[in-house]
């Protein structure tokens, strides 16, 4: 993508994570933007995201994302242990699939606070 997309917190985008190493999520998959509004406005062409998986591993910290506003066609789980920064060039569309619901955002926020030390 030649022009950076307009990002906002909690949007769901289709991202090409490339070849995984170890237990990383790889390939083309949805991800939730978890960077703050300030981070999303930085002119750095990078995004903080959490990749999604369609595999329910039964882990409490994997947050189910399946609200109609998410734009997903099947239930997915946010791997909150895998917060990562990616180039916006990895985003494969010019607009998001959708946005996480308020309930999903609340649960994501809770688990993301557990994952980082602040």
Question: Could you describe the 3D structure shown?
Answer:
By secondary structure, this protein is α+β, with helices and mostly antiparallel strands. It is built from two helices and seven strands; from the N terminus they run E-E-H-E-E-E-E-E-H. The protein has helices at residues 37-41, 102-115; strands at 11-16, 28-33, 46-53, 62-65, 76-79, 84-87, 98-99. Strands 1, 2, 3, 4, 5, 6 and 7 form a seven-stranded antiparallel sheet that branches. It is globular and about 40 Å long. The mean pLDDT is 93. This is mRNA interferase. Keywords: Endonuclease, Hydrolase, Nuclease, Toxin-antitoxin system.
Sum this structure up briefly.
InterPro entries: PemK-like (IPR003477), Plasmid_toxin/cell-grow_inhib (IPR011067). Helices cover 16% and strands 29% of the residues. It has 118 residues and is α+β, with helices and mostly antiparallel strands.
């Amino acid at each position: 993508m030649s022009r950076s997309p307009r990002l906002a917190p909690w949007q769901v985008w289709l991202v090409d994570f490339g070849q995984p190493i170890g237990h990383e999520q790889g390939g083309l998959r949805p991800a939730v933007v978890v960077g703050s509004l300030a981070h999303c406005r930085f002119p750095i062409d990078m995004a903080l995201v959490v990749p999604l998986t369609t595999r329910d591993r039964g882990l409490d910290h994997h947050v189910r994302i399946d609200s109609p506003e998410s734009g997903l066609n099947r239930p997915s789980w946010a791997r909150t242990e895998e917060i990562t920064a990616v180039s916006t060039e990895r985003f494969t569309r010019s607009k998001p699939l959708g946005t996480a619901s308020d309930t999903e955002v609340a649960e994501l926020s809770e688990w993301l606070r557990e994952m980082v030390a602040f």
